[in-house]
Amino acid sequence: MTIFDILVWLGAALTLAGVALLIGCIAIVARARKAGLDDAALRARMRRALVLNMAALALSGIGLVLVIVGIFLAP
Fold first, then answer.
1. Cα pseudo-dihedral 57, 20, 23, 35, rounded to 10
2. Which residues contact 16 (CB under 8 A, 6 or more apart)?
3. Less crowded by CB within 10 Å, the N or C end of the chain?
4. pLDDT at position 47, please?
5. Domain range annotation of the chain
């Protein structure tokens, strides 16, 4: 197993973790909307979900970049 194979697998793992976090964000927002909260409480939960959503997108993006680098640089 070369370093490029490790990059591809590491990137795939990071991408899957990011997608799992995105699904978690969807669940958080769905539960918050079902809870029937007032506007301020709903905004506070959405703000936390937004931070998690951006972190998940960044994680997925970094993972995809690692996969692409591993594929292109492999001999």
1. -110
2. 63
3. C
4. 94
5. 3-66
Interhelix angle for 3-34 vs 39-73, to 10°?
A: 160
- 66-69: long-range contacts (C-beta < 8 A, 24 or more apart)? 66/7, 66/8, 66/10, 66/11, 66/14, 67/7, 67/8, 67/11, 67/12, 67/15, 68/11, 69/7, 69/11
Length of the chain counted residue by residue: 75
pLDDT band for position 1 (cuts 50, 70, 90): confident
- Calculate the CA 41 to chain-centre distance: 24
Contact predicate 10/61, CB 8 Å: no
Distance CA 46, CA 41 (A): 9
- The reported pTM is 0.85
